[in-house]
Amino acid sequence: MKDDTPFWKRKTLEQMTAREWESLCDGCGRCCLNKLEEDGTGKIFFTDVACKLLNHDTCRCKDYRNRLKKVPDCVGLTPAEVRELDWLPPTCAYDRLAKGKDLYWWHPLLSGDPETVHIAGISVRGRVGACESQVPDDQLENWVVSWPGKVPKAAAKPAASEAKKRAGKATEAGAKTPAVAKAPERLKSVVAKVVAQSRKRVPKA
Q: Is 9 exposed, middle or buried (0-12, 13-18, 19+ CB in 10 A)?
């Protein structure tokens, strides 16, 4: 008898095929924002400064195949790293599954539409402040924002009948100016970028 249970509910992260693993990425682009690590505490702060390879409209990498060569501090995310990292966005499918949680309704694997991640206000579309090539490392603390580390209300899994209604409201919410967090004075001027970057490794971008 065929098992129709979605692969992410049947398999562990380690058991997934390469294609299944890649499909878990919802295309939000949050992981491609530069981050700062607070000296002494290790606390991570997001900025709205994006990787030079991020397409600000599609929220996808402009050269995903060669990203590791073009961006030295970008490394391939693995199941082991997902379980170790503590700064992946709270909406991240990899992080949620690693913690035994399910995908949100707007994830393309559930909605069948790659646009729902934008409609629900999850992606960085329209919220990127600058490209990393325009902002020196020692000025990144001026670009610290809080929204990448939060889950929008519209992202909470709604009843099927309410999904479209809530998604529509999220579009308007996404157009608002993102909240800015106060940057602590003692921030390391280093970039911690994902698509997979271990917090222990924060080389200069």
A: exposed
For 4-51, give the DSSP string: -S-HHHHS-GGGS-HHHHHHT-----GGGEEEEEBTTT--EEEEEEEP
Measured CA to CA, the distance from residue 72 to residue 120 in angstroms comes to 32
Strands 33-37 and 130-131: unpaired
The pTM of the full predicted model, rounded to 2 decimals, is 0.76
> What's the pLDDT at 54?
96
> How buried is 82 (Cβ within 10 angstroms: 0-12 exposed, 13-18 middle, 19+ buried)?
buried
Percentage of residues of the chain with pLDDT beyond 90: 62
Q: What is the pLDDT of residue 154?
A: 74
Q: What is the mean pLDDT of the chain?
A: 81
Residue with token string 């970057």:
197
Q: At 50, give phi and psi (nearest 5°).
A: -95, 160
Tokens of 123: 């992606």
- Higher per-residue pLDDT: 65 or 168: 65
Where residue 126 falls (left for φ over 0; alpha for ψ -120 to 50; beta otherwise) is left
- What are 89-110's pLDDT values in tens digits? 999 999 999 999 999 999 999 9
Task: Please count the other Cβ atoms lying within 10 Å of the Cβ belonging to residue 34.
Answer: 25
Q: How far apart are CA 12 and CA 6, in angstroms?
A: 12
Encoded amino acid at 99, one letter: K
